Amino acid sequence: MLENFNALADGLPPWLVLLLIAGLVFAEAALFFGFVFPGETAIVVGGVFASQDKLSLPVLLVVAVVAAVAGDSVGYEIGRKFGPRLLQTRAMSKHSAKVAKAQDLIRRRGAFAVFIGRFTALLRALMPALVGSSRLPYPKFLLFNFIGGVTWVLTFTLGGYFAGEAFDHAAKLAGRGLAIGLAVAAVAAIVVWSVRKHRREAREEAEAEADAPEQALEQTRP
After folding, report:
1. For residue 35, what are the contacts with CB-CB under 8 A and spacing of at least 6?
2. Burial of 11 (0-12, 13-18, 19+ CB in 10 A)
3. How confident is the model at residue 212 (pLDDT cuts 50, 70, 90)?
4. Model's pTM, two decimal places?
């Protein structure tokens, strides 16, 4: 796996790799790209590249933070401008249970919901627009957007960076074949966990959507 990362980085200039990472992180909330591709994957891979001296780690961190904060700010403006009409879009309707969960989190936590939502893929795509539609003042949003963006970027970029370094260290101690085997096993474990997590969230969302009509009916009863 790491060899494939290196081959990709070797085939592209560093500025283009940074641009691709920034574009994915920005589009996650600004264009709701997070519905199909979590931005954290891009910065983890960027961290691996940095561990192999394909990218500058400080530059990567700055670029990723700017892209994250800017993307969420655009998402906020979309929500502020279009408001309720945004909830009628196909993307929002498809994830109505998650939207309801995010709205409840905003009601309970206010601006702090922006920070909390940063660490859940789907909420990260939804939260800025929903906060914008709730008319939360932008200075409050920007504060928690920046804090959450910095924390998120540091966590996942450095995670990728140290994972890349650990791979090289293992390769030197135990041989490259064993290190690759361990890396494959680790990736398989992450994939299994991710698939199970996705299925559990889908099941919970379906159950929440099935219960919604019953709850609405109960509320209308005298």
Report:
1. 91, 95, 122, 125
2. exposed
3. very low
4. 0.71
